[in-house]
Amino acid sequence: MRPVRPLALCAFAAVIALAACGKSTTGGAGAPASGGPGASASGAISGAGATFPAPVYTKWAETYKAQTGMALNYQAIGSGGGIKQITAKTVDFGASDKPLKPEELEKDGLYQFPTVMGGVTPIINAPGVAPGQVKLTGPLLADIYLGKVTRWNDPAIAALNAGVTLPNLPITVVHRSDGSGTTFLFTSYLSTVSPDWQSKVGASDSVQWPTGLGGKGNDGVSAVVKQTSGSIGYVEYAYAKQNNMAYADLKNHDGQFVAPTAENFAAAAAGADWTKAPGNYLLLLNQPGANSWPITGATFILVHKAQTDAAKAKAVLSFFDWAYKNGDDAANQLDYVPLPQTVKDMVRGQWVQIKGPDGQPVYTP
Question: Of 97, 225, 331, 351, which one's alpha carbon is 20 to 30 angstroms from that of 279?
Fold first, then answer.
């Protein structure tokens, strides 16, 4: 396999400055931007959170700045960090792949809306195994992460992969070390398909892992898997594709083995009814359909309903309104799934909830 190379547009460290691709930063990993709520350079907005959507936010921000002069400085520190920073009002918006439940939003005066959808993908570093050559089921994946299946040529894996030469190597499990929406989606899926996982570990953005090595961010997990022969990890598909990682196909709800592709992520999202999702809380895991990828999810933006700086809040919503109108091509190129137009229109209608000090909506699309 080829050495680790940078993700699209710029290398991902714990902190990335989206508008400048590494030419400026907003602070250390997990640290709030300096200068108080929403602090950023003049003519910039600040955000922090999920690494899952960071590649597409990077591309959007680069194009948006070129067209408008407005920079977006984003700290890719994980969903848990994003929730903490927006709750503390140290950034203009938070980003999370773990949607907050309506009661959680209400408690902290927050509103959330989706931006794009994607898929969480098992990535592997098994000598001689090509992308998509190994098939796994959800329960088997859970057993690997529980430490019950410990070698690549275990009979349980071999039974699903007749004709594939599986190496006689121990399996090294790789997981996130930080609070992560990607982990929330992954562990929620395992809890859905494995009662053993549900009872012993459960679903959250941060869990007590039974075994394995930790990596910070999707990029950190990708790097550890790249460097560790015999390893398995989980990342948003854009990271697998851009780093030329081998991946496993998964058996879905309908019993079909499917590959992680944008088309299959879209298939999983096809039946989603956002109008019946209070607070836009919606999971797309283990959805029915012959082509549905079983670990599909949306990623979300978090903002305060009551804004002290109407101009800054307007700038945030203006950026995501622009992304809704102009960002689908970039999302498709990076194997994310854009939201349906009906969902975008629904979200735009909800933005009247975001109000300035005068009680008036900060932005009307």
Answer: 331
State the alpha helices, DSSP H only, in the chain: 54-68, 79-87, 102-108, 138-145, 155-160, 181-193, 195-200, 217-227, 237-242, 262-269, 310-326, 328-333, 341-350
pLDDT tens-digit readout, 255-293: 999 999 999 999 999 989 999 999 999 999 999 999 999
Q: What are phi and psi of 273, to 5 degrees?
A: -115, 95
Average pLDDT, the chain: 89
Q: CA-CA distance, 60 to 75, in Å (whole number)?
A: 15
Calpha distance 250→132 (Å, rounded): 9
Amino acid, res. 358: D
Give CA–CA dist 85/151, Å, rounded: 40
Domain boundaries, the chain: 119-270+290-295
Judged by phi (left if over 0) then psi (alpha if -120 to 50, else beta), residue 85 lies in: alpha
Longest alpha-carbon distance in the chain: 68
Tens of pLDDT, residue by residue over 92-118, are 999 999 999 999 999 999 999 999 999
Segment 30-48, tens digit of pLDDT: 333 333 333 344 479 999 9
Give, in degrees to the nearest 5, the angle at Cα 28 between 23 and 30: 125
Indicate the pTM of the whole model. 0.86
119-270+290-295 maps to CATH 3.40.190.10: yes
